[in-house]
Amino acid sequence: MIKQLLSKLPRKSSKSSANRDHGGNHAANSNASIGSRGSNGKFANSNSSSVAVNNSAPDASQNLGNKIHQGVNSKLNGDLGFSQYEGLPGFKDVPSSEKQNLFIRKLNLCCVVFDFTEPMKNLKEKEIKRQTLQDLVEYVTSVSGKFTETAVQEVMKMVSANLFRTFTPQPRENKVVDGVDLEEDEPSMDSAWPHLQIVYELFLRFVSSSETDAKLAKRYIDQSFILKLLDLFDSEDPREREYLKTILHRIYGKFMVHRPFIRKAINSIFYQFIFETEKYNGIAELLEILGSIINGFALPLKEEHKMFLVRAMIPLHKPRCLAMYHQPLSYCIAQFVEKDCKLADTVIRGLLKYWPIANSSKEVMFLNELEEVLEATQPPEFQRCMVPLFQQLARCLNSSHFQVAERALFLWNNDPIENLIRQNRKVILPIILPALEKNVGSHWNQAVRSLTLNVRKIFEDLDHELFNECLLKFHEDEKKEVEIRARREATWRRLEEIAATAAASDATAAAPCKALICSAAG
Question: Where is the region Disordered (predicted)?
Fold first, then answer.
């Protein structure tokens, strides 16, 4: 009886039972996941360090590369779908045996590049990536044990994906007068800097780390990578160029095999800047790197290094925008002269070759640099170039721009330079005295006249007899110049009189002809 009643009750289908079982499993998994998050308390708060595909899928890490590429492609189409992003534990929350795998998974996730031109787009994902990058920086800083080849490869892949990009030129003209940018706009800042800064910091610590094997890493930090890194020096963001400067210097120090290539690549950038474009944002930073490199050159200097000075360093004085990078350039030049004093003659003649004609601020920079070079110049090298050098300084003394004249006169306040001048006064005084006398007599600026009198007195006290001889010759030359000028003016007056007479004669001869023509026409 009871069996008959039970048999009449409706039975639930097997499908419903399967659904119930599946739902129970899903709930259990979900609760387990929530429980694990609650236990460490890091995934939902600001200390969350990374994002990843749901760990409940056993093949998620295997398909990660495909998902990243899909994410990048969808980014290009303006539609980013990151629904598969979830929190991953920090490195402190996994066993040591799993940290290397977690490191690689986080690197893969950070290969996704976000669009920062729209600030309000993908805010959650951008913050998750920033936290992931921070976690990676901490791991690279504190890691104990050499990085494996896979880890090195993944680091380089992530760095390349984030850093190597095409710069968009600013839509404004480069207006430069006297080496000064007339448009006083703030430097252009990259909107993606919140991520770029951490990527640069990660790469800097990775290259500097003692756990990075140079022999292994040089397979990935190769010549192609270095060329792309050098291209980034044209960034308009000064913060980025500062990081690049430090990183390239670390690479130069760690990977000796790349040193000649790095120098040649920088040389090529200089050639293009000097002789083609005169536009490149990172010249100053590259010169700062070279200043340290030149300081470490072994003696005697190789011929390659001397040619680099002649063909690249000295011609860098030519562009109008010299003011943007003159300080590190001047330091590099001084380093060469200190390394090999025989190069002083080459450097001074190079400066005279590119000496500005109508750019007063640039002339002052040349005089500043010239003083540094002369301080390290020995008498034999000084004697080779002193005649053309002081011919140019004489022109500077008579400059109508008072700062140029003042700066040239200040050279006599430098003891090493004054000693060189004293030793060679018989050659220098006949060249310089006419300029001194002209300044005393006619320069408009009182400070320049006072300084000129001081220099004049130095020569007079040093060698009174020589000074009087030069002064006498100057007055004789002045008289001859007056006579020549008078003869020239008389010659021009005679020419004007002859021309006027000829014009009058032509007018007299032309009058009868004109009357004849009029009568014939009538």
Answer: 1-70
